[in-house]
Model the fold of this input.
Amino acid sequence: MNTIYIISYLLLIIYVLFPNRLKERFDNICGKYELNRIEIWQRTKKKYGEMEAIRIFPRTFLLPRQIKDLMKEPSDQFILKKKWGSLRRGCDLFNNKDEIKKNMHKYDIAQVFIKNPLLINGFKFDIRVYLVVVCGYGIFLYRNGYNDYTKEKFDYTSMDRDKKINQCFCPDSQYSEHSLPKYADEIQGIDVVWPKLVEKLKKVLDSTKDLCCDNDTGNYNIYGIDVELLDNLDPMIIEINSTPSDDTGWKAEYKSKVKKYVQDKDFSDPKWIRIK
Done:
């Protein structure tokens, strides 16, 4: 009984101090974690085959059980990740398969490192876009997004994280010092990307269990999708974040605008694309 009182007291304190955060916690849909790094690869591969899966994601190996397959992979550069992670924590570069074998129990997946990303002024980047699931209403993509870049100019031959792994919350100084566009819509030729991304997201979602339960109508979840463009403007889904980390400044304002649309169930802006 004392435990129940303590939990109730703590929830009351949280409600008083952080009412919006508590509401968000209970607004989340029951299937929000179904789009994690392991399941999206496994399920898409099972439904559409490996050749189609690697059109959508970098080739992925589940660790440790697929280490033998990884050892046969022609590519020699990989990024290893844990199933859950944020802010690029738990992501490490490897270019030695024996080292991967030694360390495979520390990670959940290995992805082939993309060797031909689109560069802007020499910098590699990914686009953070938002996918929204509103139970009873549909699934929508907000067409645009902001760009996060590597700290230094990209060098595929290097194992320096600053040259290979895109920053989370890329600082404003990066954009101004190197004349880098902040938003995806500022990238030349970007209009061809959105239909391709929508097609790929449909296949991921068609391969996934229902994200909403019967009593979830009206509840929603906002997913942060990290998309990397190849040098031919083909989008690759790097990962899907079920609880995208908060940002500050203009990026936080951008996310707040998306969230306001969702809370109002207003998808009339032409930047919204209905996925399902």
